């Protein structure tokens, strides 16, 4: 345990127990094979957090695990965030490219909308690069049994905050008190899912169905998704779907000229 000395009161302060800070666990679930481009961006991002600590009440801690499945990594990082009395868990996958001030903007949006979870806009790495935010809907199968499904949210106002039923966890900020509430009612953990639903959507379904969680996406914060050493952003989704006119105030350069 590393303690620091408060320069004002002259007493040693345990950073894990310091009630004057907002404690953020930075979690990077990974199979252990980090692309050099993403890694370089992550170093820049962590340095930005270090500088942010000097001018704010935020205190950042890292929470990484060894090489294992992403769903197990998320579970262990979340458990550690609760065990270490963090206030928030900020998970960033190792193939996401983070813009400046991403954390602060998402945190501010989360507070403003009193949300339990918040994220920037992230897209799938494959064409047409759909934003990974979802609405849930019930639909009967051939046997007449109702099943819960997910639909991509594609129709949203540019640079808006969208209330959703589910998000991808490429980049996500989660309230740790909310994690504790959900953990208490889950028999087999929070993130664990080896089904084709995915551990992030599985978590969101549980959060919405059991605790009516409020989940928001701030689409003014745009994260890149590494794709064969080439990042894809919201602008690629806009181009693929022919939405240039709708988003022209954000992307004034004709999208066909953007490589």
DSSP helix fraction: 25-40%
Low-confidence stretches: none
How many individual helices?
A: 6
Shape: globular
Q: How many structural domains?
A: 1
Proportion of beta-strand residues: 25-35%
Q: State the total count of DSSP E strands.
A: 15
Order of helices and strands: EEEHEHEEHEEEEEEHHEEEH
Tell me which CATH architecture applies here: Alpha-Beta Complex
Oligomeric grouping of the chains: single chain
What is the average per-residue confidence, as pLDDT, rounded to a whole number?
A: 86
Largest sheet: 7 strands, mixed
Strand order of the largest sheet: 4-3-5-12-7-13-10
Radius of gyration: 19 Å
CATH class group: Alpha Beta
The secondary structure category is alpha+beta
Fold-level CATH name: Spore Coat Polysaccharide Biosynthesis Protein SpsA, Chain A
The rounded distance between the terminal residues' Cα atoms is: 48 Å
Describe this structure in words.
The mean pLDDT is 86. The strands form four sheets. The chain has a seven-stranded mixed beta sheet with strand order 4-3-5-12-7-13-10. Strands 6-14-15 form a three-stranded antiparallel beta sheet. A three-stranded antiparallel beta sheet has the order 9-8-11, with helices on one face. Helices cover 29% and strands 26% of the residues. Helix 1 links the parallel strand 3 and strand 4 (58-63). It has helices spanning 36-53, 70-83, 102-112, 176-185, 199-211, 234-241; strands at residues 4-5, 12-13, 22-27, 58-63, 88-92, 96-97, 117-121, 133-140, 146-152, 161-164, 166-167, 171-175, 215-222, 224-226, 231-232. The protein has a single domain (4-257), classed as Spore Coat Polysaccharide Biosynthesis Protein SpsA, Chain A (Alpha-Beta Complex), CATH 3.90.550. The protein is an alpha+beta fold and 259 residues long.
């Amino acid at each position: 345990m590393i303690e620091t000395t408060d320069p004002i009161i002259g007493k040693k302060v345990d950073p894990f127990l310091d009630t004057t800070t907002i404690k953020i666990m930075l979690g990077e679930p990974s199979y252990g094979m980090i692309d050099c481009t993403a890694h370089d961006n992550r170093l820049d991002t962590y340095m930005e957090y270090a500088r942010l600590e000097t001018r704010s009440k935020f205190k950042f801690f890292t929470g990484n695990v060894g090489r294992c499945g992403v769903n197990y990594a998320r579970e262990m990082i979340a458990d550690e965030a609760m065990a270490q009395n963090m206030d928030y868990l900020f998970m960033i996958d190792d193939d996401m490219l983070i813009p400046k001030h991403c954390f602060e903007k998402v945190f501010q949006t989360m507070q403003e909308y009193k949300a339990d979870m918040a994220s920037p806009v992230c897209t799938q790495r494959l064409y047409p690069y759909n934003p990974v935010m979802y609405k849930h809907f019930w639909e009967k199968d051939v046997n007449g049994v109702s099943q819960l499904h997910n639909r991509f949210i594609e129709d949203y106002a540019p640079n808006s905050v969208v209330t959703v039923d589910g998000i991808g966890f490429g980049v996500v900020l989660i309230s740790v008190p909310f994690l504790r509430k959900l953990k208490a009612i889950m028999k087999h953990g929070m993130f664990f899912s080896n089904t084709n639903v995915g551990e992030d959507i599985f978590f969101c379904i549980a959060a919405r169905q059991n605790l009516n969680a409020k989940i928001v996406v701030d689409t003014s914060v745009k994260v890149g998704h590494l794709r064969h050493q080439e990042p894809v952003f919201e602008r690629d989704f806009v181009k693929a779907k022919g939405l240039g006119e709708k988003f022209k105030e954000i992307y004034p350069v004709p999208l066909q000229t953007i490589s």
